[in-house]
């Protein structure tokens, strides 16, 4: 970041605020968005992964606290998903990938939030279905592992699955995903810590801006609005980052 001009730094911080705002508004921590931004501004993978997980912890916890007040929280569903996800995220966090491979995998995983924010999302089912415990454990383990490996919380993958399987409604999905992300991000960061953490010197600014955007997004998202135009704009930013990661 120190190599950037003041104008580009301001642009980065402004986009960081928007990313945190939008993700928290739908119950997510925003790691995939933070990683996309850091990739666009050429931060190293060693810095990107722990930084995104740290920001994720703060923003997803804020989102959970907001949504928890407005839904009947289903703790049994959360723990069915998180029981294997947490150790799997820790194991994924232990693995250090080659920078080129990491960028390719991240580029592929960015397709999930692009689909999410472009509006291609399963609708809330009229009637909820019974949760399959074996399937919930399996999905949690897979999402958790790749969350720790890439440096995301996994909510961007979990949310459409919960809706597609009709295990939860929109607000319930946001609340469950938010806490799932928090737990996965903590486990992934602990896995990263075993190999030594590298943060940007401006990490405290990152946290402050993400918390501000996340708090506002979670407050408004839990109560009032969807922000369709802003989501489409964010999808465009993610598409650009995805193209950069996959094609360069």
Automatic annotation (TrEMBL):
Task: Decide whether keyword Cell division is in the record.
Answer: no
Annotated keywords? Cell membrane, Membrane, Transmembrane, Transmembrane helix
Pfam entry (one): TauE
Upper lineage: Bacteria, Pseudomonadati, Bacteroidota, Cytophagia, Cytophagales
> What InterPro entries does the annotation carry?
TM_pro_TauE-like, TSUP/Inactive_protease-like
The membrane topology noted for this protein in its Swiss-Prot or TrEMBL record is: Multi-pass membrane protein
Protein's UniProt name: Probable membrane transporter protein
Protein localization: Cell membrane; Membrane
- Specify where it is mainly localized: membrane
Q: Which family does it belong to?
A: Belongs to the 4-toluene sulfonate uptake permease (TSUP) (TC 2.A.102) family.
What GO terms fall under cellular component here? Answer: plasma membrane
* Sequence intervals crossing the membrane: 12-41, 53-71, 77-97, 104-121, 133-166, 178-197, 203-222
User: Domain of life here?
Assistant: Bacteria
């Amino acid at each position: 970041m120190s190599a950037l001009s003041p104008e580009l730094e301001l642009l980065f911080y402004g986009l960081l605020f928007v990313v945190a705002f939008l993700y928290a508004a739908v119950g997510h921590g925003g790691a995939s968005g933070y990683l996309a931004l850091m990739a666009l501004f050429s931060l190293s993978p060693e810095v990107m992964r722990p930084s995104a997980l740290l920001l994720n912890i703060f923003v997803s916890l804020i989102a959970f606290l907001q949504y928890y007040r407005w839904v009947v929280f289903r703790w049994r569903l959360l723990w069915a998903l998180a029981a294997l996800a947490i150790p799997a995220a820790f194991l994924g966090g232990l693995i250090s990938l080659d920078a080129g491979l990491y960028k390719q995998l991240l580029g592929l995983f960015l397709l999930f939030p692009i689909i999410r924010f472009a509006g291609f999302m399963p609708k809330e089912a009229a009637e909820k279905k019974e949760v399959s415990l074996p399937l919930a454990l399996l999905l949690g383990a897979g999402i958790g592992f790749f969350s720790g490996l890439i440096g995301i919380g996994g909510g961007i993958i979990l949310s459409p699955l919960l809706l597609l399987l009709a295990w939860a409604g929109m607000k319930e999905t946001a609340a469950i995903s938010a806490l799932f992300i928090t737990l996965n991000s903590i486990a992934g960061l602990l896995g990263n810590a075993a190999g030594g953490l590298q943060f940007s010197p401006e990490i405290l600014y990152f946290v402050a801006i993400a918390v501000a955007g996340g708090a506002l997004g979670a407050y408004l998202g839990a109560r009032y609005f969807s922000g369709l135009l802003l989501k489409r704009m964010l999808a465009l930013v993610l598409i650009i980052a995805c193209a950069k990661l996959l094609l360069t």
